[in-house]
Amino acid sequence: MRIWRNSQNEALSLIIYASSSARVERGNELEVRRWARGVAQSKGAGLIEVRTVDREIRFIFKELRMQVYYYTGMLLTRRVAGLDHDRM
User: What is the pTM of this model?
Assistant: First the structure.
């Protein structure tokens, strides 16, 4: 996992898995929506938006912590063949 932080301590992280997600490959909208809602709920958050586009899953959820909303966006996509993922 790689994490980058800016001067306000906002984070951007990158995780590369060895295998592709079956959810990304199938692209079933209802299955993806249920899964994304489960991810949000596991963090005590609410799902705002889910999209599946060309074998990508994109979703946003918000979490209330100490009277402040924290927004998290996630993008899942297929690995690109030939790209050296270990050098990222």
Answer: 0.70
